[in-house]
């Protein structure tokens, strides 16, 4: 079996291993310390500190950074309940990728799981390297068990800020395959205006493997089953069992120094949950949204939906001591309650004093947003103006959930227009277009909008569901022209669009029974997913694709192992919402 480029590169492996050790030490991970091995299985290590290393050289000089990763099962108990998790290098959350703009990164991912997997680099533009985007069924086949895929791409020299990576095969990331990606640049407007920086990773957590929960969610028959509330509520997503800050339900602590400005990089790595983040007694100045530097609005609380990122500046200028850090799970946005869920996830921030485990500080007393939507446009004004060019193409889509009886049983599936997406795990749409070019015709489970030439695309989406949904566009930063209630009415709703330095980001929340209008430049060759980032909803079909510049796609130098891993998928074409490829 050809395992691709790594076998011939032992020094790369060594460099990667050395890097992992250095990274682990830098993060203060006691590899193997403190946590007992459970039976024959490895136990997950949880970092206790997420303060970034201040000695990282932020520079215009670029380099290549090598990472050697193994994705595997392991036991862990992030919230005290032990379960099987899926992890990278036995760490949870997974390893930090920290780079400068323009760096090349080489991440060799070895799949030690019993199922296929892929890793996606959320928010990376990947101009010219769409086949490194890591999207199962779109840009690659799942990496079969026992094989590796080397992700090699250059961070765009004009891209900086806070990103993350995660598995992009069915709902796999829910089980723990995720971690932070930080891009530094002297060109970032906020550069030099803070003293230290720390990661604040928020996620929701389940006691069961996502594959089983997904089967229940999708095959939901609406019949009465005392043991499974999900079965009784068609279309209701499994509610999580707990919430985590930096991989821990309790005890995540930030040990800061007094009178410094800290950049907190908030990242929501959840599957379902919007969080509202705050720190008692400390104002937060919002300086970044999804990689775009913004004019710092000061807030007490910042709502952050699935897959979004904000950087906020916090100044340690209050009375020395410990303060509650709060990541409040917005369970009001769930369709189904979990009565056992504690929605107030707490951490501790301490400076100039001995840390107290449970600070007595009080929550801000202003009202909660409570409506499951984003910070508004006036709080997200980009520092660097970039006026949207006039659009040359308008794409109108709707999203909805519908009951179907398609495959014998009843199911609630997600639809973009009339298409409920299903990953083609043996013939990703990128490979289809690579082979056939503009003549490609896609199967009925793929909604693909093609632009043969560079177009400025307006994407208008109506949400026919009562819940709000966090949508992400791969490979682009879009202008957020407008958000509204009801349906977008062409000829009338345009008055609500803002062309004057609108927010730019890569993930936005579409309100329940509402619409959004975004604009992006279709100049990035490849197949780019646009999907709801709620893991359950993407797996249920809420994904469409943009295919830009087919003639350039045909000129890609796609590594041979991509095609080989597709043909090693058993049984020809496998359409799957779940993930059990390659057993
Ligand atoms: Cu965070 Cu399709 O991605």
Automatic annotation (TrEMBL):
Protein name in UniProt: Multi-copper oxidase
Keyword set, alphabetical order: Copper, Disulfide bond, Glycoprotein, Membrane, Metal-binding, Oxidoreductase, Transmembrane, Transmembrane helix
Stored CDD domains: CuRO_1_Diphenol_Ox (cd13857), CuRO_3_MCO_like_4 (cd13910)
Every Plastocyanin-like domain range: 72-187, 199-337, 429-549
A Pfam family: Cu-oxidase_3
InterPro entries for this protein: Cu-oxidase-like_N, Cu-oxidase_2nd, Cu-oxidase_C, Cu-oxidase_fam, Cu_oxidase_CS, Cu_oxidase_Cu_BS, Cupredoxin
Domain of life of the organism encoding this protein: Eukaryota
GO molecular function: copper ion binding; oxidoreductase activity
Taxonomic source organism: Coniophora puteana (strain RWD-64-598)
Family classification: Belongs to the multicopper oxidase family.
Gene3D superfamilies for the chain: Cupredoxins - blue copper proteins (2.60.40.420)
TM helices/strands, residue ranges: 12-35
